[in-house]
Design a protein that fits this description.
Elements lengths: L7 E4 L1 H7 L7 H13 L4 E3 L7 H13 L4 E7 L2 H10 L6 E8 L2 H8 L3 H15 L6 E6 L6 H14 L3 E6 L6 H14 L7 E6 L6 H10 L4 E4 L13 H10 L1 H4 L11 H12 L20 H9 L27 H10 L9 H15 L4 H16 L1
Parallel strand pairs: 1-2, 1-8, 2-3, 3-4, 4-5, 5-6, 6-7, 7-8
Helix pairs in contact: 2-3, 2-12, 3-4, 4-6, 6-7, 8-9, 12-16, 15-16
Bound molecules: 3-methyl-2-oxobutanoic acid and zinc ion.
């Protein structure tokens, strides 16, 4: 498969997603989520904003040391202190990226930064040059690009690439654009910016009008090769582009997207989605595409009958593709310890990861309340058992 045809998946659940939670996550919670996100086989994971607090710095540093596989990325405004903190927090990562940004829309330049576009560009160029002392993988974002005139975007992006940015990210920060407009921005950048092919074009869409996924997909069709997204689409206000929807769109509609592909291990989607929901205390709406409780439930008799005769009559994806295991034994209050141990083993836990006797008692209490206990419930029970032991 050609590298040009790969759509890079940049997960920002632990940065843009976490930023929007009512209560911040503990370091332990972030580490657990970081491992789950790495299991999804994302290409890059943005795991925090190191300068924002000592706690954030420590979490980024720990993830950089512990989590292998994806490129580990930290966010930094285009200011010297941010870049320095980001470079230090990421020091021990096997593969690291510094993501720096500055606002470019007239509204943000005038009222937030009180700068001209030229001044913002000089600041961005200095930040990119500084970042290149720590890594050669540098992403630059034009905050509020969706409301920035195209010539202004071209101006700053040309200089950012010349300074060493290897990924250029176009955020629709306030979720304002519609798919045709957003695709036109990508087309124009590809046609107008000299040396644009030296950098990977990326998009980062917010969901204020419910268009984050549609805008991201249109951008890919126009030539973008990285999508920034979060598990369950969690994020500021109405959220970010949802990782699981993008991955399943590209996989399910290969008739449209081939030869483009993502490297997401889709069978990890269901598990990571429920873990994010539990840990972030953000319930998943039942009719949420791909991961909602009703996403594969067929209520009408005609549909049930059709699916029994041939799965694809009413199902465009198989539940197994997103990691929903069919025909598995239901875990209920009648299930024994052995079954629980067996299931945890399948989920990758060893006997030393939990105390079976205590876990079984918590399992029975939960099964009495819920009826059926799911894999993600079991994982949450193990997680909370370990948390209590360490307190
Ligand atoms: O929404 C946004 O503009 C951002 C940037 C920092 C990429 O999150
Ligand atoms: Zn954002």
């Amino acid at each position: 498969m050609s590298a040009d045809n790969k759509i890079w998946i940049f997960d920002t659940t632990l940065r843009d997603g976490e930023q929007a939670l009512r209560a911040s996550l503990s370091q332990k919670q972030k580490i657990q989520l970081a491992h789950a996100i790495a299991r999804l086989n994302v290409d890059v994971m943005e795991v925090g904003f190191p300068v924002s607090s000592p706690g954030d710095f420590d979490s980024v540093q720990r993830i950089a040391r512990e989590v292998k596989g994806p490129v580990i990325c930290g966010l930094a405004r285009a200011v010297a202190g941010d870049i320095e903190a980001c470079g230090a927090a990421l020091k021990d990562a096997e593969r690291k990226r510094i993501h720096t940004f500055i606002a470019t829309s007239p509204l943000h330049l005038e009222y937030k930064l009180r700068k001209t576009l030229q001044q913002a560009t000089e600041q961005a160029v200095a930040a990119i040059r500084q970042a290149s002392r720590y890594t050669d993988d540098i992403e630059f974002s034009c905050e509020d690009a969706g409301r920035t005139p195209i010539d202004d975007l071209c101006y700053i992006i040309e200089r950012a690439i010349a300074a060493g940015a290897t990924t250029i990210n176009i955020p629709d920060t306030v979720g304002y654009t519609i798919p045709t407009e957003f695709a036109a921005i990508i087309h124009a950048l590809k046609n107008k910016v000299p040396n644009i092919d030296k950098a990977r074009l990326s998009v980062h869409c917010h969901n204020d009008l419910g268009l984050a996924v549609a805008n991201s997909i249109s951008a890919v069709q126009a030539g973008a090769r990285q999508i920034e997204c979060t598990v369950n689409g969690i994020g500021e206000r109405a959220g970010n582009c949802s990782l699981e929807e993008v991955a399943m769109i590209v996989k399910t509609r290969q008739d449209v997207f081939a030869p483009l592909y993502t490297n997401i291990k889709t069978t990890e989607i269901y598990r990571s989605s429920h873990l994010v929901s539990q840990i972030c205390n953000m319930p998943i709406q039942p009719n949420k595409a791909v991961v909602g409780e009703n996403a594969f439930a067929h209520s009408s008799g005609i549909h049930q009958d059709g699916v029994l005769k041939a799965q694809n009559t009413y199902e465009i994806m198989a539940p197994e593709q997103v990691g929903i295991r069919q025909n598995e034994l239901n875990l209920t209050s009648r299930s024994g310890r052995h079954v629980i141990q067996h299931r945890l083993n399948d989920l990758g836990y060893s006997k030393d990861d939990y105390n079976l006797d205590e876990l079984y008692q918590s399992f029975l209490a939960l099964a009495d309340q819920k009826g059926r206990v799911f894999d993600y419930d079991l994982e949450a029970l193990v997680f909370f058992q370990n948390l209590q032991e360490q307190d």
